[in-house]
Design brief:
Blueprint (H helix, E strand, L loop, with lengths): L2 H17 L4 H12 L6 E7 L2 E7 L6 E6 L7 H15 L5 H9 L8 H15 L7 H24 L3 H22 L5 H9 L5 H12 L3 H29 L2 E2 L3 E2 L1
Helix pairs in contact: 1-2, 1-4, 3-4, 5-6, 5-8, 6-7, 6-8, 7-8, 7-10, 9-10
Length: 257
């Protein structure tokens, strides 16, 4: 067996999963399952939210240790499902090592085009408005704000703005657009529009994964994910507060005006 290719396959599978928002214990489990097909004497895997460490050792080979840094993370359940399917087929003997590595390399970063993502963002913002007792006016307002949010996210990804700054700018754009609409449509509930529109930025998956990692005993990863979720929430709140303060809607220490 090509142990080096086996290690590269396992690390690639783990990296894709970690970048796509999978829990660290699930990433470790997938890597271990792939490496154990070599029936080696030593298989060790340690995964953090920012990196992967794996070792494969056997008396007839030199120990192979790989460290892979993972800098960017997001949420893409389709990629996680694809890796799981390939891993299961390989471990069951339904796929060769070369085929598994090739299939992993072919997993795309995005499942849909940018236009589809942008339309989904607009529909998501508008869809949350009725859940917060919004009427037709609030739904329309949230859709308009969602379009602005989609534009800001698209530009931010293109010029590769840091995640924290991206969240601040996005939430600021949401608040400024909602305030602008409020000035022209006084009967519109601005709070409902803002709350509905920031929902795509809420780190719900990150919080869920943080809890699951913590319950699995991965306290470092769980704590890191909780901090990451807190920073995202703080960035969203900061952007909205700055926009309101800049337009005079909100005065620090004085509440809404």
């Amino acid at each position: 067996m090509d142990y080096k290719l086996l290690m590269n396959t396992a690390i690639l599978a783990g990296e894709i999963m970690l970048r796509s928002g999978a829990e660290t214990y699930r990433v470790e489990d997938t890597i271990n399952h792939i490496l154990r097909t070599a029936h080696a004497e030593t298989v060790e895997t340690f995964v953090l939210t920012t990196g992967i460490f794996a070792t494969l050792d056997n008396p007839d080979i030199e120990a192979i240790t790989v460290i892979r840094r993972v800098e960017s993370r997001g949420t893409n359940l389709n990629r996680i499902a694809s890796v799981n399917a390939i891993s299961r087929k390989f471990c069951a003997g339904e796929m060769t090592l070369e085929e598994a590595y090739s299939c992993l390399r072919q997993i795309k970063g995005k499942q849909y085009r940018k236009m589809v993502y942008n339309l989904a963002t607009i529909c998501l913002c508008a869809g949350f408005a009725p859940l917060f007792n919004g009427g037709v006016l609030e739904i329309a307002g949230a859709a308009i704000v969602g379009a602005v949010l989609a534009l800001i996210i698209t530009i931010g990804k293109k010029i590769r703005i840091h995640g924290f700054i991206q969240d601040v700018i996005s939430s600021m754009g949401i608040a400024l657009t909602a305030i602008f609409l409020k000035w022209h449509l006084p009967q519109m509930n601005m709070d409902t529009v803002i709350i509905s529109s920031i929902m795509p930025l809420v780190p719900g998956v990150a919080i869920t994964n943080a809890i699951r990692d913590t319950l699995q005993g991965d306290y470092l990863s769980g704590g890191a994910r909780i901090l990451e979720a807190f920073l995202t929430a703080a960035a969203v709140a900061l952007g909205v507060a700055v926009a309101m303060a800049a337009t005079g809607i909100f005065k620090p220490g004085g509440g809404l005006v």
